[in-house]
């Protein structure tokens, strides 16, 4: 499986659907890195053009991979070592292209069902099983800007619960989606 994950902080929407750059949340770094490590994601890109936010991420990475945190908690070190900070989705795509020798497919997530280029979990899982390089991106704040959705190869179907409530934290959404795409199937668990 050649799966990469990106947490996009720009361009995303605020609650008034204005395009913004959102702040990095350290809980997102820790929790999504741990989920990424669990599901064998190759890299977890934190995507923000903001220098102060990039500096924050670098401090967190440094603490858990080379500072006291690395000695204190090896499991956290393993997870945080997957984090790579980049300024844009394009930069993440270029890094993957250089590592994999091909352009990755870009699969975006969104809380609403898209009419164009939508893909089911089964369809996305098949792409991963076919060993295609994939960058799966999650939006922060109120979701990815429509310009990002427009350039994505696919937009993953939304998570649908039992109600119309569609406001999961990105950490929760990432855990659910990665389990659906990269989790073991029942037949694999029986072995």
TrEMBL record:
InterPro entries from the xrefs?
A: RNA_MeTrfase_C_dom, tRNA_m1G_MTases_N
Q: Which domain of life is it from?
A: Bacteria
tRNA (guanine-N(1)-)-methyltransferase C-terminal domain ranges (all copies): 3-183
Supply the name of the protein: tRNA (guanine-N(1)-)-methyltransferase C-terminal domain-containing protein
Which organism is the protein's source? uncultured Desulfobacterium sp
């Amino acid at each position: 499986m050649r799966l990469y994950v990106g947490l996009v902080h720009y361009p995303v929407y605020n609650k008034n659907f204005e395009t913004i750059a959102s702040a990095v949340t350290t809980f997102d770094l820790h929790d999504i890195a741990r989920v990424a490590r669990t599901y064998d994601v190759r890299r977890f890109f934190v995507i923000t053009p903001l220098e102060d936010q990039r500096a924050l991420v670098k401090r967190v990475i440094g603490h858990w991979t080379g500072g006291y945190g690395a000695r204190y908690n090896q499991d956290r070190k393993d997870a945080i070592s997957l984090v790579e900070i980049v300024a844009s989705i394009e930069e993440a795509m270029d890094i993957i292209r250089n590592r994999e020798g091909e352009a990755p497919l870009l699969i975006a997530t969104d809380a609403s069902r898209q009419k164009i280029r939508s893909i089911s979990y089964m369809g996305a899982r098949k792409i991963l099983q076919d060993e295609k390089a994939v960058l799966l991106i999650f939006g922060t704040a109120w979701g990815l800007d429509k310009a990002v959705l427009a350039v994505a190869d696919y937009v993953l179907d939304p998570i649908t619960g039992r109600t119309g409530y569609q406001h999961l934290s990105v950490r929760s959404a990432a855990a659910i989606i990665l389990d659906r795409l990269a989790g073991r199937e029942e037949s694999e668990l029986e072995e």
